[in-house]
Amino acid sequence: GARILLRSAQARPAWLDAIEVGSDNRPLREVLRFHEAMADALQTGDRVHTYAGFVIADAPA
Question: What is the Cβ-side half-sphere exposure of residue 19, based on CA atoms within 13 angstroms?
């Protein structure tokens, strides 16, 4: 597996819900395990505030 970190100008990037992956076109949110509470907690400690959104997800092995 792998951990994915994304930054976005949007707090909740809608494009994450529109992405489909694999030959069976599964929604990205079904393939990755998102850690929204962890991302929200870490976002509050951002000192620069360049990005409104912070996304943490795990990809399966």
Answer: 11
